Amino acid sequence: MWKIAAVVVATGMLAACGGATGDEGKAGSGAPGGSSAEKSLVKTPEGFDTSKGWQQAVSWVSEDAESVPVGAAPEAGVVAFLQKRGEDYVVEARDAATGAPRWSSKPWRPPVLPENVEPDEAYLPRLLLVNEGDREYIAVWAYTPHFTDKDTVSLVLYPADSSGKGIAPAHARSLPIEAYGPAKVVDGGSGLLVSWEDKGTSYAAAVDLTKEHVQTYDESLELPVCQEEVACIGGSVDGLSPDGPVIGLDPGGFGVPGIWQSFDAVPPGAPATKSGRWGNGVVRHILGDHVLSGWEAERDPARPEDTTVVAAHDLKTGKLEASVRCDTEDGDGVSFQPMVSPNGRYAVAGTVAMDLEQGKSLCLQDNGEQESVRLVSVGDDGIAYGHQRASSQRIPVAVTLGTGKTEPLPKGTHIPFLSLPQAGGFSLPSPDGEGLLFTFHPRR
């Protein structure tokens, strides 16, 4: 089953990918009911055909938004957008290849902010893809603080393979929580995961979409290793495996109680413990069926600057799939969301690229001969796209993961923030100054 991380477009990525113009909402031959991109000014890598395509604007978000409500469901072959209609929100799903409308939801209205709460981007509705079992869901959620009462996390979910208009949510739920700061909702790998903090304690809720059941956890969770080998302060839920929650120990170590733990899958170049007492290794992201982790590396006089080992593990078994000694700090204030290819074979995270099937990894950090490359997306063909930092410039590049070859692209080339089997997705500021424009061009 294809699983791709929900799209989170960072501010820096938009600056890197933007620069073209287009129209909003005009019907065109390239996309029934959408906007044709036949005259697109997007300059794409040669693997994409700019003579064909489609585009869609999202006008209610700011150009410098930290994230925008756009998500892709590769198995269903759709790209979903959260659009605002007055005080309501509607999910519009379009065919990834043609832009043709596939389905749209009934209007949904999140809870109104109380009068004592100032508007903030953290309280705006968001969209993400969630996988559970063999189904893809498009989830819309919003966090509403109250301060004088319990906060709420409101959720509505729609099957990604729906069709037609006025689709009702397959699941709708409101979770009352007591949180200090905004809650976070993510695809936990095998279901939807809500997490928050209150008075220094971490909490999480796993939402089972099949049984419509919610399981709440606090940080009293532990792994067997806590009593056997290392000292543990507490544990938080960092993901959801098919057999239970993925527990991340404080300050290090992770696993699924009774199933697997990271101490049995330590990557080369990293010790199982640090400071002789604490566990090593922390969960950084859940990417589909994989856990992306970071480890404190063993000291290496030949590579003193590389203090981190990045590793990938199978979500169900914990088996080590690939690892590389590499620092993945973003630099320049630019943050890139880790991504996995639609077929689940390749993963990219900043300066790291992995072939999870072959167990091979690349570190694209500055090595004295080549400037650092930070990757944004990767396709099923094993070609990743990103930028190379050279002096004050950021050069667009394509990296072939099979060979490790980095190829600079022509000046002004836009790189895809989405590399789908059918098309590439490119983001840019809307020409009318209202929101963002997303352009999709098919593969050649």
Shape field:
globular
The share of residues in extended strands comes to over 45%
User: Mean pLDDT across all residues, rounded?
Assistant: 86
Q: Quote the distance from N terminus to C terminus.
A: 24 Å
Share of residues in helices? under 10%
Q: Enumerate the strands of the largest sheet in spatial order, edge to edge or round the barrel.
A: 1-2-36-35-34
Low-confidence stretches: 1-33, 331-335
Structural class: mainly beta
Number of strands: 36
Strand count, sense and barrel status of the largest sheet are: 5 strands, antiparallel
Number of helices: 2
Determine Rg (CA atoms, Å). Answer: 22 Å
Write a structural description.
The protein is mainly beta and 444 residues long. The chain has two helices and 36 strands. The strands form nine sheets. The chain has a five-stranded antiparallel β-sheet with strand order 1-2-36-35-34. A five-stranded mixed β-sheet has the order 3-4-5-6-10, with no helix packed on it. The N terminus is likely disordered. Helices cover 2% and strands 45% of the residues. β26 and β27 form a beta hairpin.
